[in-house]
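Revision sheet: structure tokens.
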Amino acid sequence: MAFPVQRPRRLRRTPVLRKMVRETDLSPSDFIYPLFVCPGRGVRTEIQAMPGCYRLSVDETVAEGQELLTLGVPAAILFGLPPSKDAEGSGAWAEDGIVQQAVRALKKSVPDLFVITDLCLCEYTDHGHCGRVDGGEVLNDPTLELLARTAVAQARAGADLIAPSDMMDGRVAAIRKALDGGGFSHLPILSYAAKYASAFYGPFREAADSAPQFGDRRAYQMDPANAREAMREVALDIEEGADIVMVKPAMPCLDIVRRVRDAFDVPLAAYQVSGEYSMIVAAARNGWVNRNLVIMESLTAIRRAGADLVLTYFAKEASRLLKAG
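Predicted:
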């Protein structure tokens, strides 16, 4: 029956009633917090393009891990800034690599924190690309060996989950084979399955010192104009052994998040990337938006679209807001 019998506003009259009929809830347990790990001790350097985010030495990373658990955030994902780089990114799989050091320290001091390791070579290569390069071209198949080697090194350090973000074809299968062969068949893989060549990654490249020294990454990351291709990428990664899939970036790709959620019955993550974070922070600092409300609305939108997990630089802030009610 139409108006005046049907009055949707009846269910919006009070805060209690709105909360009772709310369709999408946020919880700190939904969040994964990115951490940038660098050499040294006592290092906590703010990232200029990402105010409120820091490059952290291993000891400071442990302190962050402890704070995350007190806020109810169960997991962190680690990105490494090595002391030196080379053409193949050998620091990614070195036993004493910066991420491996951080994983061991976290599992020793904060054993209840779920530690995810981002698996890519761009932070470790002197050319800034995500694999082996020859003649200005990023080589797919030779890169798989390096990714597999890195996955095993991260697993040996104690990582709870491996998250390949390189977008090489066949990398999930190669990593799964290497992990299984190394005695880590129990370790899950979170694949950056639909990762777009997005302009929203700019601040991250400052944070991780991972900007390409030539060209760009459009030859291996996805064209933002494509949706059907994302579905193919996700299907392939699941077939190869991905346990969780991810869409990146989140807000510009909420339609992709929804399509993946509707089509595949696996856990789904979405990454609220650095550009999304920095825009909200900048707008709030200028008084153009209400910071707290925009943080919560943006995260709710990502969950409403269908994401089970949200990688976000607002994880700690949002958790505090949730606890405050």
